[in-house]
From TrEMBL:
The keyword Coiled coil applies. SUPFAM superfamilies: HlyD-like secretion proteins. Residues 1-24 form the signal peptide. It comes from the Bacteria. The keyword Cell membrane does not apply. Residues 306-362 form the CzcB-like C-terminal circularly permuted SH3-like domain. InterPro entries: CzcB_C, MFP_Cation_Efflux. Residues 132-159 form a coiled coil. It comes from Comamonas endophytica. This is HlyD family efflux transporter periplasmic adaptor subunit. Pfam families: CzcB_C. Gene3D superfamilies: 2.40.30.170, 2.40.420.20, 2.40.50.100, Helix hairpin bin. Keywords: Coiled coil, Plasmid, Signal, Transport.
Length: 371
């Protein structure tokens, strides 16, 4: 009996030991704590800076450059529109109402190169049946009168010895006049209005279809010289027109097009002052008439700042513009900055940086993603 009680007590004690938590001695851990982070990998530190080891910097292609405070030209971004140079392009309009007819090479297509004076199409004048019959009757009268005058002239020439010379000369002039009038009326009946290219360039717009009826002064073709364009920008500061030192725009393909100031208007348009520039450079082929662009105007006035590449600017979680500064061999700190446009590839940092600090110029977005 005592043996059975002892065995039952032993089994009960073993069960209690299995279900109860086991406490370790002080200084020992059985693995219940979360795994520790890798202290040698890229990580965001509590103060917001980033720890980035040298191997990670090489893998991310981090590049830095020292920033220097200097006087930089103040730049202003304006809304612009690409226009046709009035001295290098033109419009082809119908002088009379009529029906379009193709020229010797057919109707030109959009993008086709043409030369000044080249025949593009014809316009057959539209006349009513009553007008046409009246012109035909007039032409018949002129021809009959000319035939009578020629017969009278032949008789007078046979009597040249008895007829004064002035009568023969007067009749000769009458015969010539009747012939010219008959030819003019005949040309009006059968002639066509020729549409010729007003400038050399390419067809940028075509509103022509064979057999189409057009009105007088209706636009049929538009010709543009793609190497000579104008850009019109709207400035809301009228003093800016007198302070332009240079300007440029960047195409969608990333090419920079230099702009030369042509002049500024002396009257406002929708509370803005139009300023025209002449575009020049290799990127003109990527521009189209009527295309909206962003024009960066550099002024003669200057501002003190640090020039940094545009790729160095990133956004923090608060949507503020920041740059990353290298403060130690493996430590980078964010700096909130204010910027102003400088040129197509760089911006001017006016506040937030000091001269001599090393600024991340490449792969700043990768540092910004470290958490």
């Amino acid at each position: 009996m005592n043996l059975r009680l002892c065995t039952l007590a032993g089994l009960l004690a073993a069960a209690l030991l299995v279900n109860s938590p086991v406490l370790a001695d002080e200084g020992h851990d059985h693995g219940d704590a979360p795994a520790a982070t890798n202290a040698n990998g890229p990580q965001r530190l509590p103060d917001g800076s980033v720890f980035l080891p040298k191997p990670a910097q090489r893998q991310m292609a981090i590049r830095t450059a020292p920033g220097a405070q200097r006087s930089l030209p103040r730049a202003v971004e304006l809304n612009g529109l690409v226009l046709m140079d009035p001295n290098a392009g033109g419009k082809v309009q119908a002088m009379v109402a009529g029906r379009l007819q193709a020229g010797p090479r057919g109707l030109p297509a959009i993008g086709q190169a043409v030369r000044k004076g080249e025949l593009l199409a014809y316009v057959q004048p539209a006349t009513s049946s009553l007008e046409r019959s009246g012109q035909q009757a007039q032409l018949a009268e002129l021809r009959a009168a000319r035939q009578l005058a020629e017969k009278r002239l032949a008789r007078l020439r046979d009597l040249a010895d008895t007829v004064p010379r002035r009568e023969i000369e007067a009749l000769e002039s009458e015969v010539a006049s009747l012939g010219e009038r008959a030819r003019a009326v005949g040309t009006g009946l059968e002639g066509r209005d020729a549409l010729v290219a007003s400038a050399s360039g390419v067809i940028s717009a075509s509103h022509a279809v064979a057999g189409q009826v057009v009105d007088a002064r209706e636009l049929v073709f538009e010709i543009v010289d793609t190497q000579r364009l104008r850009v019109e920008a709207l400035a809301y500061d009228t003093a800016l027109a007198q302070d332009v030192a240079g300007a440029y725009l960047t195409t969608d393909g990333g090419q920079r097009v230099a702009l030369t100031l042509v002049g500024a208007a002396r009257s406002l348009r929708e509370q803005a002052l139009p300023i025209q520039f002449r575009a020049q450079g290799e990127g003109l082929g990527q521009l189209a008439i009527g295309q909206p662009v962003r024009v960066v105007v550099q002024t003669r006035s200057e501002v003190t700042g640090v020039a940094v590449p545009a790729a160095a600017l990133v956004k923090n979680p608060s949507n503020q513009t920041i740059v990353w500064v290298k403060t130690a061999a493996e430590r980078f700190e964010p700096r909130v900055v204010t910027t102003a446009p400088l040129d197509g590839a760089s911006v001017s940092v006016t506040t937030g940086l000091q001269g001599g600090e090393r600024i991340v110029t490449e792969s700043a977005s990768l540092i910004n993603q470290v958490r």
